[in-house]
Write a structure and sequence with these properties.
The chain is of the alpha+beta class. The chain has 41 helices and 30 strands. Strands 1, 2, 3, 4, 5, 6, 7, 8, 9 and 10 form a 10-stranded antiparallel sheet that branches. β5 (316-319) and β6 form a beta hairpin. It starts with 6 loop residues before the first helix and ends with a strand. The model is unreliable at 1-9, 129-137, 140-239, 385-436, 1043-1055 and 1377-1383 (pLDDT under 50).
Length: 1413
């Protein structure tokens, strides 16, 4: 139930509840009131606190404002004080500079006054002691002062010049103009010594004794020092002495005295012999001739380098007005052939090599020689017969970096052209002479200043548009890096940042170019405002070196082209980094310059001016912000201190020399001999092998340097010996650095030894130059004949040059250079220590020279690939001079040893061709074309627009740059009237056969000069004659648009009808069975090639035939179609062939259909049963097989299709996958665009073409050959012709391997009688891989030492076997029934084109025969 309250209880409860509610409401109100009051109080407190905080913040802001105002006031006051101090300092500096300048001006004025007083005194002294003749020629008011006595007489109309008509008048004393007093020497004009140098007068009584020659006709020849009698004699081969005198010499201080005997000779060119003897302090010291050219006594010095046609080899230019030439044993002959009429006199001083003694005339003046008598005589007579008067370009071998700079800035030829020639032999100059950088500097001029200068200007720009990452970073870094130190540090980030230890070719290549331009000033360096001594540069260089060393070592271990390219880049980086030996990484390096600037060695204070220049130009700059420009400034200062006429204290000059050497060491600009000497001197722990090799090189170099003649066997032997010692030293240094004791040396020592090895390579360039000049390879025109000794030297030089490149490359082409070096060295001593003579020796030299030239061309192409694009991009981005950029790569090539290798190979080729009667081009297919244009293409391709533009009405001779030997001639259309190929090609290559079949004359040009000649006729009309025996010509003529004349492009016999019997499809027919079949039926089933191979096998079964043939089998015609039916693809195959037949005239659609057909054919496979049958024919002992084409459109009398269809080598017959894929590849070759085009050009329908497959035992040839039973060039049927090469025959057939094969002509009437026409020059042979996967590998070979080259009896035996085999095959296969191969004219058998090989056991194998085109 429910419980209810009663009413009374409910009222009471309600009351209580109401009261409770009121109490609760009151309590709640009280609580709320309290809360409100509390919130009010808290708000008031918070507001008060906020007000207090705001007030404090305002006060803090006020304080900060006051502080800032005070700070600004202090700063303003400080700035004002600083400005005042700076202004005061600037004023003081300006005052000091003005004072210094005034002092300098005063010193210059005083010096000028002293010089003027001195010159006046000397002039007065000279006037007082001059003869009447001297006063006559030096009187500025005398109109005849520039005339010699002979000229003066001529001015009066008298004929007194020797050699002119009525020379008898010379017997009378020549009368000078009025007032002229005849010197005593003229009293007897025919007296005194005449003729050679030993007959020159030694009297010092007369200053100028003019002794006219006797009235006989001079015989002008080069001046050869031949002793002659002192009695009067006719002008002899030694030169007519027309004036002679002896001059007393002394130094200004009198410390040395001497004499100078002078003979002026009327040789051709005119010449002056100078012989000096010195005593006192100069006694025993090497003497140098410091000389110039002038127009009169007392005239200004002019530079012989610009005023004369040549200066003595080995001379140097210390300044712009003079030349210095060594006096060998105190004597020197100077050729004096002026470029202009004003240069008639020599002026000179004699100095010791150490610059401490300068000898002048005793009156203190320059030694003066009047050469005009000799000039008069020579000009009157004119040049001797055969010696036109022309400028003879000086050929001096300079420091390697100087020649490099010359190529960078002055040379305009491309590297494949012949350089300028000169008859003058060059003499060696020490690598790294003290003007090395000064002479190669491409930056702004470095001035010597005696006050503080600016920071330097930067003339580059920085454009990063389109640059690769490495180049962009270099350009941006250069923009942000003014100084050399900063550039090095930023370059470290590029080189060492993200490569992960591998070679980043972009980083290495761009860095090599960049550092080169920084080093020669093309990229300008300037001060960066910092103060960093050179130790910072050294530390950066240390890190870069160690990184690129690791990259180089890793690349060398990898080998191949990768190693060759990596090393080519890194070896150009090494010399561009500063040294980081201990002397340069200490905190204060290169302190000697400070001591010099403070007066060390200047005990008497005579060098104050130059010390100021040293301080401001070199010392302060070097210790703040070192850069390559400091070495330029140092070299300039050294030139100033050692200039003629200066007399700086010897101790001061010597101190500066030592500093200059230290600075060269820092910039790694030392000579190689100085570097090696220092390393051996300062590092006693060098491995004994290194020390021995260095000593041997030094001794050999001294012997070579001691030979002053430019030619002769003594020089050739010395250069051979020096190159051998140099090569050995390089190899020892390199081995010790990579495998021996130096491998664990400190990084700074490794750098120095690596630079020593690189420096030896650079010095090899100099030695090779001496050898090349001694051989006459640089004469104009170059020599084409060589003695046996010269041939030996040329081959040894070539071997050493190739060996040098091989060591530097470390892989890739370097391996080829190593083989060239071996082949050349072996040939040099092949015949009892001498090269073989006669035509055989010439052919062998030609082969090794061809191989060397190819290797050189490939190496140069690699360098061009590495540098051409990078130099262009970086140079343009940095604003480098356009010419400097353009010649950078050429300079790298022409300054490298590979350039010398190219010179030597060209010289050997010229001599070999002259000996064998070759002309530099090779007739492969005879013919004549007249009146057509000559066009140039890269390759002979039907798709080339130039080829497509040719028609029968607009034909052309085509100059082709490259060919692989597989090109089609017919496919290029009737407009190809003749072909000129820019490299050698086997005469029996596929291209040669197709050209012969098309009656298209083909010539291979092997001489670059002839290639250039052909290119010069581009787009003009030509008359092209190609006949065997060297009767080849290419001349300009008018265009008649007709390809006429000779047998060029004669009409071909129509192609024979194609047959294909597909009834045997799905079978395997072995060659024995096929060979027993009737010829025509066998051809219908297996094609001409397969049938011929079957009959060859049948012939070989007779042991009397003299040759063997490989066994095998044929998959007959229809096998491909059967394989397609097996997979349901026969309908698609048929429709695609039908479409191909109908798309003539649409090359694009034809190419697409060909691609589809090849893809389909490659997808097909013979059945497993067929593959098993093929495999069972070849047991495991018989190795791999060849899978070959045998189509119905090849090996026919009118359609050889040589090389048109594919064969697959080195196939494992027991692997169904490999064998099936090889068969499918042969099937697919029926549908290549080349094959389809060739059939279309021959009028053969695509539906008629069929392909069978020939599978034969594969041979491993020692020598492969192609034999033709009628000589293909002469068409002489009594002479057989063969070409042979090592390895697989593809080398001969395709022509893809560059080089020349052995060529042999054989007398068919006398088997064994033969002539070797060429020695093989191939660098490699094709051999099967061990895997049997169809791959042929390239292996290096040495044809020069093979029996085909060296063993004439064995070669004759092979010739006998080839002739006998050819006769037998011609009789058998040339007379087959059915007319397919039919007999020739007069029922004679058709001549045969035969392929085969000789295996290592000497057995001759025949693998193929076809009708000869």
């Amino acid at each position: 139930g429910f419980f209810f309250l009663n009413s009374a209880l409910s009222a009471s409860t309600a009351l209580r509840a109401t009261q409770a509610a009121k109490d609760q409401a009151f309590t709640q109100q009280t609580r709320l009131r309290a809360m409100a009051e509390s919130a009010t109080r808290e708000t008031a407190v918070a507001n008060a606190e906020a007000a207090r905080t705001r007030e404090e913040e305002l006060r803090r802001v006020d304080r900060l404002a006051n502080d800032a105002a005070e700070s600004r006031n202090r700063e303003r006051a400080g700035d004002a004080a600083n400005k005042a101090a700076f202004a005061a300092a600037a004023a003081e500096s300006q005052r000091q500079n003005a004072a210094d300048e005034a002092a300098s001006a005063e010193r210059r004025r005083v010096a000028a006054e002293k010089q003027a007083a001195y010159e006046k005194k000397m002039a007065e002294t000279r006037d007082a002691t001059r003869s009447a003749y001297e006063r006559f020629v030096n009187d500025t008011q005398n109109p005849f002062r520039n005339f010699t006595p002979a000229r003066a007489a001529a001015a009066r109309g008298e004929d007194v010049l020797p050699g002119m008509p009525q020379t008898a008048t010379m017997a009378a004393t020549m009368a000078p103009p009025a007032g002229f007093v005849v010197p005593a020497a003229f009293a007897n004009p025919l007296g005194g010594g005449g003729g050679g140098w030993d007959g020159a007068s030694s009297s010092a009584a007369t200053d100028h004794g003019y002794t006219p020659p006797p009235p006989s006709t001079p015989a002008y020849t080069a001046h050869t020092p031949t002793p002659v009698a002192t009695a009067p004699a006719p002008v002899s081969a030694s030169g007519a002495v027309v004036a002679s005198h002896t001059i007393a010499l002394t130094t200004e201080s009198g410390s040395s005295t001497g004499t100078c005997s002078v003979s002026v000779m009327a040789t051709w060119p005119p010449s002056v012999r100078i012989e000096c003897r010195a005593g006192g302090a100069a006694d025993g010291q090497p003497l140098l001739l410091h000389w110039g050219v002038s127009d009169r006594r007392g005239g200004s010095w002019m530079s012989p380098q610009t005023e004369l046609q040549s200066v003595p080899p080995g001379s140097r230019a210390p300044d712009a007005q003079s030349c210095e030439s060594a006096l060998e044993n105190g004597a020197r002959v100077v050729e004096f052939a002026p470029n202009a009429a004003g240069a008639t006199c020599m002026v000179m001083l004699i100095r010791t090599e150490n610059c401490q003694e300068w000898l002048r005339e005793t009156d203190g003046g320059d030694v003066f020689i009047d050469v005009s008598p000799a000039l008069d005589l020579v000009r009157a007579m004119g040049p001797p017969d055969g010696q036109p008067q022309q400028r003879q370009e000086q050929r001096q071998e300079q420091h390697h970096h100087q020649e490099h700079h010359h190529e960078q800035h002055h040379h305009q030829e491309r590297h494949h052209q012949e350089p300028q020639k000169s008859p003058h032999p060059s003499e060696p100059v020490a690598v790294g002479d003290h003007m090395a950088l000064l002479s190669t500097w491409a930056g702004a001029d470095v001035e010597l200043k005696d006050h503080k200068g600016g920071k330097g200007d930067r003339h580059n720009r920085w454009n990063t548009d389109g640059l690769p990452d490495a180049a962009r970073r270099i350009v941006e870094n250069d923009r942000d890096s003014a100084s050399y130190r900063q550039k090095l540090q930023k370059l470290e980030e590029v080189l060492c940042g993200d490569s992960g230890g591998g070679a980043d070719f972009d980083a290495l290549g761009y860095s090599a170019v960049y550092l080169f331009w920084v080093g020669v000033g093309a990229v300008a360096c300037a001060e960066d405002g910092g103060h960093y001594r050179p130790n910072h540069h050294a530390e950066t260089a240390s890190r870069i070196y160690q990184h690129i060393e690791n990259v180089e070592n890793a690349a060398t271990r990898t080998g191949g082209r990768y190693a060759e390219e990596t090393r080519a880049l890194i070896r150009r980086l090494h010399p561009r980094l500063p040294a980081f030996t201990a002397e340069f990484t200490q905190s204060v390096p290169l302190t000697r310059i400070r001591d010099i600037a403070h007066g060390k060695g200047d005990d008497n204070g005579r060098c104050r001016e130059v010390r100021q220049e040293i301080k401001h130009t070199i010392q302060n700059k070097l210790h703040r912000c070192a850069g390559p420009e400091d070495l330029v400034a140092t070299e300039k200062m050294l030139a100033k201190l050692t200039a003629p006429g200066t007399d700086y204290p010897a101790a001061f000059v010597e101190e500066f020399r030592i500093f200059h050497k230290e600075l060269k060491d820092f910039f790694n600009a030392s000579t190689v001999t100085d570097r090696i000497d220092k390393l051996l001197r300062e590092n006693g722990d060098a491995p004994p092998s290194v020390r021995d090799a260095a000593d041997a090189f030094s001794a050999a170099k001294q012997i070579c340097d001691g030979i002053t003649t430019g030619t002769g066997s003594e020089l050739l032997h010395a250069v051979e010996h020096a190159l051998g010692a140099l090569s050995n030293a390089r190899k020892v240094f390199d081995w010790e650095l990579t495998n021996g004791g130096l491998q664990s040396a400190s990084p700074d020592m490794r750098q120095q030894w690596r630079l020593a090895e690189i420096g030896l390579e650079e010095y090899a360039f100099v030695l090779l130059s001496r050898g090349i000049n001694a051989l006459g390879a640089e004469t104009d025109p170059p020599r084409t004949e060589m003695s046996a000794q010269e041939q030996k030297s040329a081959l040894l030089f070539l071997g050493q040059a190739a060996d040098a490149v091989a060591l530097s490359a470390g892989g890739g082409g370097g391996e080829e250079f190593a083989r060239v070096a071996l082949e050349a060295t072996e040939l040099a001593v092949a015949d009892n220590g001498m090269p073989p003579g006669g035509e055989n020796g010439a052919l062998r030299s030609r082969a090794v020279a061809e191989r060397a030239r190819r290797a050189s061309e490939d190496h140069c192409a690699m360098l061009a690939d590495l540098f051409d694009g990078r130099a262009s991009a970086l140079g343009n981005a940095l604003g480098i001079d356009k010419h400097v950029v353009e010649v950078f790569t050429e300079g790298q090539i022409r300054a490298s040893v590979v350039f010398q290798a190219a010179k030597l190979s060209s010289h050997l080729l010229r001599a070999a061709r002259a000996a064998t009667g070759e002309a530099g081009w090779d007739c492969i297919v005879a013919g004549e074309v007249r009146g057509v244009r000559l066009v140039c293409v890269e390759r002979l391709l039907p798709t080339d627009p130039v080829i497509q533009s040719l028609t029968s009405a607009n034909p052309a001779v085509v100059l082709v740059t490259h060919a692989n030997g597989d090109e089609e001639v017919d496919s290029c259309g009737p407009g190809v009237a003749g072909i000129l190929l820019c490299h050698a090609l086997p005469h029996l290559s596929h291209l040669a056969l197709r050209s012969r079949q098309a009656k298209c004359p083909l010539v291979a040009i092997e001489d670059p000069a002839l290639v250039n000649h052909a290119r010069s006729l581009r787009d003009g009309g030509v008359h092209f004659v190609a006949q065997p025996g060297g009767n080849i010509s290419l001349n300009k003529c008018d265009v008649t648009a007709q390809a006429g004349g000779g047998d060029s492009k004669q009409s071909r016999a129509p192609a024979q009808a194609l047959v294909a019997d597909r009834s045997a499809a799905g079978q395997v027919i072995d060659l024995v069975t096929l060979g027993n079949a009737e010829w025509a039926s066998a051809v219908a089933v297996a094609g001409s090639k397969g049938t011929a191979c079957a009959q060859l096998a049948a012939m070989a079964s007779d042991p009397r035939c003299g040759f063997a043939a490989p066994a095998g089998a044929v998959l007959p015609f229809g096998s491909m179609e059967a394989a397609a039916r097996a997979v349901g693809a026969d309908g698609r195959l048929s429709s695609l062939v039908d479409a191909l037949e109908l798309c003539a005239g649409d090359p694009g659609r034809a190419a697409r259909l060909c691609d589809e057909l090849q893809e389909l054919a490659r997808s097909l496979r013979p059945s497993g049963e067929i593959l098993s049958q093929l495999g069972n024919l070849f047991d495991n002992d018989r190795g791999v097989v060849m899978v070959r084409s045998t189509g119905n459109a090849e090996d026919l009398a009118g359609l050889s299709a040589a090389g048109l269809y594919d064969s697959v080598s080195n196939v494992n017959p027991h692997d169904p996958n490999v064998l099936g894929a090889a068969v499918a590849e042969v099937w697919a070759s029926l549908f290549t665009t080349r094959a389809v085009g060739s059939r279309a050009a021959a009028g053969v329908g695509q539906k008629d073409a069929a392909m069978a497959v020939l599978v034969q035992q594969m041979l491993v040839p020692e020598v492969s050959f192609i034999l033709m039973t009628k000589h293909p060039m002469s068409n002489d049927s009594t002479v057989a012709y063969a070409e042979l090469a090592l390895g697989h025959g593809e080398t001969l057939a395709s022509g893809a391997v560059r080089g020349t094969p052995w060529r042999m002509s054989m007398n068919r009437a006398v088997p064994g009688e033969h002539r070797l026409d060429a020695v093989a020059s191939f660098s490699s042979a094709l051999v099967p891989s061990a895997t049997g996967n169809g791959e042929l590998l390239s292996r290096p070979v040495n044809s020069g030492s093979h029996w085909m080259t060296t063993d004439e009896p064995r070669r004759a035996s092979l010739a006998r076997e080839l002739v006998n085999a050819g006769d037998l095959i011609e009789q058998k296969l040339g007379r087959n029934e059915g007319g397919v191969r039919g007999a020739g004219n007069n029922n004679e058998p058709q001549h045969q084109d035969i392929e085969g090989c000789v295996t290592e056991n000497g057995r001759v194998w025949i693998v193929q025969a076809r009708p000869q085109p």
